[in-house]
Design a protein that fits this description.
The protein contains 3 helices and 5 strands, in the order αββαβαββ. It has 119 residues and is α+β, with helices and mostly antiparallel strands. A 5-stranded mixed sheet has the order 2-1-3-4-5, with helices on both faces. The protein is globular and about 35 Å long. The protein starts with 10 loop residues before the first helix and ends with a strand. The relative contact order is 0.22.
């Protein structure tokens, strides 16, 4: 269950997530949202069209590069990934592979638009 204060997926944030999802399709896109900006990370899964994986070092490097304060990591940084083939909501795999971050978002591509689901 997401924590309080998750951002609404609208306007610029919605456009950024749609663009990132389309840019990576048919692979699942993955990354973080911080300060209403979408950042992508390499999907290192052996099955990137059906799953995501992220090297912890890539995530740490991005967080360091953005100068995210450590106290904001578990409340104001949001982990996201896409389901470019539809599949609204998190899969069993997604639920079993959550990061230590409190808030996770799956962005499903449906009829050329996104359906966001917090989990």
């Amino acid at each position: 269950m997401p924590g309080k204060g998750v951002p609404l997926i609208e306007g610029s944030l919605r456009r950024q997530l749609l663009e990132a999802t389309l840019a990576e399709a048919p692979r699942e896109a993955v990354g973080i949202i911080w300060q209403d900006q979408v950042y992508t990370l390499p999907n290192t899964s052996q099955y990137p069209e059906n799953q995501f994986a992220v090297h912890l070092g890539d995530l740490r490097n991005l967080i360091d590069e953005l100068k995210v304060p450590r106290e904001q990591l578990h409340g104001e940084v949001y982990f996201w990934h896409s389901h470019p083939s539809g599949g609204v909501g998190p899969s069993r795999f997604d639920a079993n592979h959550k990061t230590p971050m409190r808030n996770h978002l799956v962005v499903s591509l449906v009829d050329g638009d996104i359906v966001p689901t917090w989990y």
